[in-house]
Automatic annotation (TrEMBL):
Record membrane topology: Multi-pass membrane protein
Keywords assigned by UniProt, alphabetized: Cell membrane, Membrane, Transmembrane, Transmembrane helix, Transport
Pfam families hit by this protein: BPD_transp_1 (PF00528)
Coiled coil: none
Name of the protein: Sugar ABC transporter permease
Source organism, top-level taxon: Bacteria
Residues passing through the membrane, by range: 21-46, 78-102, 114-134, 165-192, 270-290
GO CC terms of this entry: plasma membrane
Organism, scientific name: Paenibacillus ginsengarvi
Claim: Chloroplast is one of the keywords in the record: no
Cellular localization per UniProt: Cell membrane
Amino acid sequence: MAATASRATRVLRKHWKGYAFLIPVFAVLATFKYIPFFNALIMSFYDWNGANVRTFVGLDNFIKLFQDKTFYVSLKNMGVFTVTGVLIQLTVPLLAAVLVFHVKKIRLQNMFKLWFVIPLVIPSIVIYLTWQWIFAGDYGVLNQLLEQFGLESWTHAWLGESKTALASVIFVGFPWIGGITFLIYLAGLMAISTELFEVARLDGMNAWQRFIHLELPLVRSQLKLVAVLTVIQQIQSFENILVLTNGGPGQSTMTPALYLYIQGFSYSKMGYASAIGLVLFALLLVLTWANNRFVKNTETID
């Protein structure tokens, strides 16, 4: 222990200038991440309105939460969003990245890359409002198209009916390709040695065999990363639901993150909202640990 401490001290003294540059980073993280988190941890044990009312209630917020039917409905909806989101992000962007990677003409390949990256610079709120317009009732683009094709019986108030609202929210962003996920997969494919592709060609592998036996195993680390990022995004995000349905109709699209927002900022139940946030944090921690524990990286594949 003493030798380790001495070695760490020597390294710190030698590279203190480099470590000094990290101080502003940790200061910002502490201000906007760590301090609010620990404040929420403390306030989850209080009946707090975010201002002048703060009464210690112990575990009452958590007891109330686990008896809250709306919270369980939101968990079920979150599970649907998370499972479908992970399935989509592990398949569609990967296939798109593989297709673009194997485009022979560099200029055409770069053009495809640009098209798939453009959605990154479009504000999310613009995308959600566009899909709200597509799914609108009588004057929505989707219903208008269905009527043009003589399919009036298929029209719906897509975001206003319980039986279609959940699926409509999942469909937002179709075809689910553009963005950071596509770039992550493309970077993983570009890191594969060209010699391996030459060996696959000499062995007579077709495109499907090459994908299954070469490309898919060697982007395992990227698949793992995308799975973690998608789970985190699906559990934390609420702005899409807020803009599209506000959790309705009824509670058919309510999620825990949106429920937290409503309890905290609409009803001023900041203590209760903090309890919801801690439960979500614990759930994310467990899911992330499970992914890191049971999903192998590319380097650890036998």
